[in-house]
Amino acid sequence: MHRSRLFGIFIDTPTGEAAGAADFWAGAFGTSAKPVPGEEEFIALHAAFPGLAVDVQAIGGEPRYHLDLETDDVPAETARLLALGATMVADHGGHKTLRAPGGHLFCVVPVQSAQELFDAQARTWP
Questions:
Q1: Domain covering 2-125: architecture
Q2: The dihedral of CA 40, 41, 45, 51: what is its sign?
Q3: What residues does each domain of the chain span?
Q4: What share of the chain is helix, strand, coil (3-state, %, to 5)?
Q5: Which of 67, 22, 18 is nearest to 44 (CA)?
Q6: Most Cβ neighbours (<10 Å): which of 37, 50, 52, 60?
């Protein structure tokens, strides 16, 4: 058995437009935008939605949105989602990028949130 939960929503934005996008979304959500230390491609929108990470991510491609699902067992959660119809896009070792039916990207990542939040909100899967 393993557990997983929605960890975050990421607003993927072309690198040159990320700062402006972060300012816009911070204003739209009534929060502040702050770079994530040690991860220069991310600008966090603090407390935009309690319990979820909401970040602008600078990317080298077209704008899009993606979700991150956190889990205490990346291989098991990946296998569960592949069985539901997702396809593997990239295996980054510690995390995986998948594509859901319909074409949307999402990532399966190890637990990123505080353990007590994960314990309280994660679903258990057989």
A1: Roll (3.10)
A2: negative
A3: 2-125
A4: 25, 45, 30
A5: 22
A6: 52
